[in-house]
Amino acid sequence: MFKGITKRWIINTFGVIIAVITLLIVCLSVLMQSLCYSSIEQALLNRNNELSAVFPGYKCENTADFQNTATKYVEDFEHKESMELMVINASGRITMASTGFEPDEKIEIPDYEAALKDDDSVAMWTGKLSSGEKAMATTHVIRNSKGTSVGAIRYVVSLRKANLHTFIVTLIAAFVGIIIIACVAFSGSYFIRSIVKPVREMSKTAKRIAQGDFSAKLTKMYDDEIGELSDSINDMAKELDASEKLKNDFISRVSHELRTPLTAIKGWAETMQYGVPDRITLEKGMSVIVNESSRLTGIVEELLDFSKLQSGRLTMQKLKMDILAEVDEAVYMFKERALSEGKHLLYDEPETMPPVYGDRNRLKQVFINVLDNALKYTPEGGMVGVQVYQDFKEDMIKIIVADNGCGISQDDIPKIKDKFYKANQKVNGSGIGLAVADEIIKLHDGTLDIDSSLEVGTTVTISLPTYKNQDEEVDEANILKPPVIAEKNSIKKD
Fold first, then answer.
1. CATH of the structural domain 319-490, one choice from 3.10.150.10, 3.30.565.10, 3.40.190.10, 3.40.50.970
2. How far apart are CA 111 and CA 50, in angstroms?
3. CATH of domain 225-311
4. 195-222 pLDDT tens trace
5. What's the pLDDT score for residue 424?
6. Is the pLDDT of residue 492 over 50?
7. What b/e sequence results for 330-357 when a residue is b if at least 16 CB atoms lie within 10 Å of its CB, and e otherwise?
8. Is residue 403 classed exposed, middle or buried when 0-12, 13-18 and 19+ CB atoms within 10 A define those classes?
9. In which region does residue 208 sit, left (phi positive, over 0), alpha (psi from -120 to 50) or beta (all else)?
10. Which of 56, 159, 310, 468 is buried most deeply by CB count within 10 Å?
């Protein structure tokens, strides 16, 4: 129970509160005692002032007059209940007290000794009497005109009532402090439980999620930071569940993608192993083996690139390069495939284009991936168009690949570049090609944008910054407007 947040609260908060309240009680006790003692001290000083009326100027010419005046003063003393009045003769012996009892001759009177040495002939003392009772006393020495002591008047006040009053006040303050501590403990324990209980539930749920139970959910108990954290954990579980499903689908797709070419290669290899077929069959078999091997190599390379991207090990060998040459080569690679599938591959090639700074192999990989997807999702008789133009306003080279295939729904477009995501499950593919392509373009400080509508088609726009020396300037007179790719007549059939 007393561990973690609760332990820290007890030590840091509750401990500080107890310390502060204890300090306040001690300070109040000391202050109360000081006030009581100051009040008694003031009362004693007032008696000293009163003494000047009994002995004018605190003077008396002889001991006999002093004794007579002191005796009358003791008899008429009005404050006998609150303090004791003592008369001390010239030899320092107590001769009379207002209590009426015989004075103790062995009693110590340090204030008298101090008053004899004091210039004002007065001294005050606080200490314990011979009975053990704590008291405060003041002594005023009465002198004659020659300055010789003829006696002294001593006032003694017991501090028992003052100490008792201080104790009662301290006791009340301690009781109030205990009530405050109890209230703080009650409210604090409720507050701590309101944090500890949800945190423990979060810990249990997080462990379940860590063990692969993504169906674990937290109940939102409070509409505050704890509630927001609960929502975040629930959203995290939901995203992890979705990612897990995508990963499983990806593994299933990749397994199928790998199995298909391997099955074809193995089948034709076994056919050739058990007998030499005729030349036509042999050429067909070798063609299948070569094509499926290339397909297999492409899948493996795609997976390796994705792994490098995930671990941050994908490097770019950037140089000043001709972007048109790479686009042209990528288009040329798909000419025969487009013809064999009965699709139109159109390419409107400009005469010149500024160079870009990039990795030619990686950029060609992106163009191949985008063209492969465009042909893959375009039906027989459909059209895929490729255009390249310079956007002078943004100082970018734009490569546009458009098709009139099945298109992508608006719900899928935001996720189409996510890893493992595949909008159309009916068409072969691993679902990581666009994720790899998008990362490669980002590493070139460019963008890969997708615009699509179902049953209308898809347009992929790749934007790459141009390579320019600082001395070069753009000719504003040669600014070209971006071509409209939807117009088939503006695209040259290759």
1. 3.30.565.10
2. 19
3. 1.10.287.130
4. 777 787 888 888 888 888 878 887 777 7
5. 60
6. no
7. bbeebeeebeebebbbbbbeeeebbebb
8. buried
9. alpha
10. 159
